[in-house]
Amino acid sequence: MKPCYLLLLPMFCAVTGCSSFANRHIEYQQVTPEVFPVLTAVGYAPISLQLGQTGEHKMLQAMKASKLEAYKELTEQVYGQKIDARNELRSMVLTDERLSTSVKGIISGARVVKTYAVEDVYITELELDFKQVYNLYQNTQPRQTIKSVRYYY
């Protein structure tokens, strides 16, 4: 008889424990920021140094490179930049100094404002409007706070 009681005890606890959650109503409200900043970034790429057989191909490569550079700059503005530094001393004389940086993040909602060439440099200007970013995320991950909780007995 003891094994039967051991099986019924968890089921009884689960049923009675869940009933306390059914006695409340939670109302949520949307959280909207007061200010939406607009970030801008510019990316540059040399045309003649690009790998390619023709001038047109080098131009296309520079277009892509300048766009990626502009996205990297936006990512730095939004997420910051990780900096790793290392210094080595021997007999109180600096013998080795190393510095590396990295950027990591996801940029959604940026738009190309302008893209053009000036002499041998291709330039891409991007804009990131945080109102657009907010609207994108509200569709997939709404930001909410608890407005009120009502308990019923």
Q: Could you please describe the fold and organization of this structure?
A:
- The structure is a single chain.
- This protein has 153 residues and is of the alpha+beta class.
- Helix content is 35%, strand content 39%.
- The protein has 3 helices and 7 strands; from the N terminus they run αββαββββαβ.
- The strands form 3 sheets. The chain has a 3-stranded antiparallel β-sheet.
- β5 and β6 form a beta hairpin.
- The two termini are 36 Å apart.
- The model is unreliable at 12-19 (pLDDT under 50).
Features:
signal; lipoprotein; 3-stranded antiparallel beta sheet; single chain; LPP20 family lipoprotein; 3 helices; 7 strands; 35% helix; 153 residues
What does the secondary structure layout of this molecule look like, with pairings?
Layout: H1 2-19, E1 24-30, E2 38-46, H2 55-79, E3 82-90, E4 93-102, E5 111-118, E6 121-129, H3 130-140, E7 144-151
Antiparallel strand pairs: 1-7, 2-6, 3-4, 5-6
Give the averaged pLDDT, no decimals.
Answer: 86
Described by strand count, sense and barrel closure, the largest sheet is: 3 strands, antiparallel
List unreliable stretches of 5+ residues.
12-19
Counting DSSP E segments of at least 2 residues, the number of strands comes to: 7
Helix content: 25-40%
**Main β-sheet, spatial strand arrangement:** 2-6-5
The topology string of helices and strands comes to HEEHEEEEHE
| Shape label | flat
- Radius of gyration over C-alpha positions, nearest whole angstrom: 28 Å
Cα-to-Cα separation, first versus last residue: 36 Å
Task: List the total number of helices.
Answer: 3
Strand content: 35-45%
Which structural class is indicated by helix and strand composition?
alpha+beta
